Amino acid sequence: MLTWNYPEIPAGFSCHNHTSWSDGSGTLEEICRKGKDMGLKVLGISDHWVKPPFPGTDADSWSMDLSRTGEYVAALQKLKAELEDENFKLLIGLEVDVFPENIGEVIVELQKFPLDYMIGSVHYSGTFAIDYSPESWKDLSEKEMDDHCNVYYDKLEVAAARSEFAFIGHLDLPKKFGFIDNKKYFRRAVKVLDILKESGGAIELNTAGFYKECTEQYPALEILQQAYKRQIPVIINADAHCPEHLMRGFDQARRLLQQAGYK
Fold this sequence. Notes:
CATH topology: TIM Barrel
Number of strands: 9
Distance between the termini: 22 Å
Helix content: 25-40%
Strand content: 5-15%
């Protein structure tokens, strides 16, 4: 399993990455070989696994085919056998979308597979896609935006309470397109951290936000500082969707974590 100790930042890890099995552009083999060539010590593949408990989402367009989960795992096991050595470890993971209505069943289903870790993430408020496009946000009223953000954090609290997740993905994702005043939901984010402290969970510093409209990592520095105060482990991840981005923004991320208090 994917584990590490507070307050040290895992070095040479990149464990939130997507391939053409979900919404990434590189094959499993391409991204795994690239990670080894880049000198990563630990590479984790975590394609999207989304099982909405209701119709109306666009999940089929960006989630992996759930019926092929065993095939996905087997392909990664083959690459592990081929590529792993004393300097490189390949981990088999999934980024699991959390829906309170079925998360228990989903975890039981996924525990049948020899996964190294699962990421707990939220991408939907009902059928509304939190991070699909700025166009989906721009015509919303302030109340509608607030409603979606509160649903997001309600679901993230559910994710944080599940000890099966190695870490929580992109904690303050609703800010992505620049429409949300992140400070308004600071207390919601801190509540998620309090739950993680109780459950023994962790978070990531996701560098993908540097390159989005929000121009800021997920989560904000103020949230990272609160995570440090609660002794919550953190891992730097690129949320890469192509092999070239596996370590994108990592130097800047390390400086931010040190600013927050991590070693």
